[in-house]
Protein: Adenylosuccinate lyase
Amino acid sequence: MSLPTQPLSPLDGRYQGAVAALGEHLSEAGLNRARVHIEIEWLLYLTEHELFGASKLEAGQAEALRRVVAEFGQEQIEQLAQYERTTRHDVKAVEYFVRDRLAELGLGGIAELTHFACTSEDINNLSYALTVRAAVAEVWLPKLRGVVEQLRALAIEHRALPMLSLTHGQPATPSTFGKEFAVVVHRLERQLQQFERIEYLGKFSGATGTFSAHLAAGPELDWPTISREFVTSLGLDWNPLTTQIESHDWQAELYTRVAHTNRILHNLATDIWTYISMGWITQIPVAGATGSSTMPHKINPIRFENAEANLELSSAVLDSLAATLVTSRLQRDLTDSSAQRNIGVGFGHSLLALDNISRGLGEIAVNATALAAELDGNWEVLGEAIQTVVRAEITAGRSSISDPYALLKELTRGRRVGAEDLAEFVRGLDIGDEAKQRLLALTPGGYTGLAEQLVEHVAR
Structure:
């Protein structure tokens, strides 16, 4: 027995609720609405400037045309699908759709200005620029900023809470939990600044980027200026020099940046998973939730595991897009056409990961008791402080010790050293009394340097 038609991607099935907002922009319907928008705005530009004998439209006529875009919905989606079944060409279907709307509005006299001097890529590249920009600005970036704010709050809350650091998985100079969260906030804020500088480029120069048809129809017109004015009127940056296609460099730059951000988030997810496995972070039970089908005690860190997988999938898609889109054979091939239809997939998996990280951060607590116990069990991490102080004392002429590093290495390497062991060792050192008292007062929990103050860099 066959199943009824089912979504093939989990983004359109199991996880559809978490990523639905992207569909407003990065779906086939979102792309088609943008195409209609571009076609209509070009018509309005041509009539507004009274080119080729066209008259300016009345305000009500222009408003009615723009309403075609504003009211674009399921009925229009189905109409376009019907056009495309005949044309076998997606942009030509949009042109016929617009021509029919002109006829319905009594504007058939300007129908020949529809898609005037355009190649399909003139419409497509602007449509992708608009839809991707909207998806990033209205959906993806707000979710990322939300996660950054959650991390900022955790950094501030735990700025003074000491924790044992682990370098190479081994006990190392302590930090504070807040400072470690602040590191991630700072990394992500750098990426957010980079996103503000991304250009969304558009071209509008005909079949091979030469304005040839434009010049044939209107040799007296300044077509590069017209092109620039039209592209920038859409809020995009104008690309003056292209082949048939806009070169997609801005897309490669954007997707590379998103993939880089994914990897920072992946690092966060794996670290939190590790802290959970060590008991340094605890998970807050969710009423009714099941961690294991057979082990009822378990609370699995599924939010962070799900995020890991989706960040990897997102980066794989976006890396592929960034590599593919910057190459087009000679003046045009269609590899970008199929590739760009997966932009939403790349952003969808990243958005789903952000949703899981956000939920996961709301379901954890830092275990201060476990952190204190770890610090108390690793007094040997003070070896760094002791040998550094001895070096300073030697330089100041208050010690005759010949090799302080070797001395501490002999005492601490590969060994657990308790508080009393270290105190006895310090009392026997040939150093000044003030330095000795400073070292005797030091504890692993107090050996966090400027970690607390460093959180100020992200505490706004």
Remarks:
- The beta strands are 162-167, 170-176, 201-202, 237-238, 281-283, 364-366.
- The chain has three domains: 10-118, 121-288+295-368, 377-453.
- The longest strand covers residues 170-176.
- Residues 120-157 form the longest helix (38 residues).
